[in-house]
Amino acid sequence: MNKAIFLDRDGVINEEIGEYITRAVDFNVLPHAIEGIKKFNDAGWQVVIITNQGGIAKGLYTAAEVDKMHRLMQQQLAGVNARVDLIYYCPHHPDYGKCLCRKPDSLLVQKALARLRIMPNHAAFIGDKPRDVEAAIGAAVQGYLIEPNENWLPLADEIIQKIS
Ligand SMILES: [Mg+2]
Ligand SMILES: [Zn+2]
User: Fold this and answer.
1) What pLDDT does residue 119 have?
2) What ranges do the domains of the chain cover?
3) Cα of 146 to ligand 1 centre, how many Å?
4) 61, 128, 146, 153: which has the fewest Cβ within 10 Å?
5) Looking at residue 81, what is its pLDDT?
């Protein structure tokens, strides 16, 4: 049985700084996130990041810079034998046109479920904004709302125990 944990990025994986993260040097992975991702890896779960990066549409940073942030994150994770399996981001912003992939829409969650062959009831989503939970619910995935930068290790234990 394949299982997947969906994680929002800013405020869940890396420190939410209250503004767009435009440079890789400002991308600080939270220590509990490294531990939490490893926890899911070790329990046999797929780990997926779904993130809105509307700053790309706004011209504040490039997709290449985002990819750089994610490479740095994967390097840090590799240091403890952990990894994120799949990263989907929406590069659009409603000020510059409509898309189907920006949370609270569920398209990226549904895409990941299909690609990894995961049943929605074998997945969960941890996010720090109501739109994260909305995107999960739209794909019939249980969503959990935390505070930005909150330590979600206890929640990870709860989810792993609940879906086993
Ligand atoms: Mg967030
Ligand atoms: Zn989009």
Assistant:
1) 98
2) 17-22+29-153
3) 9
4) 153
5) 98
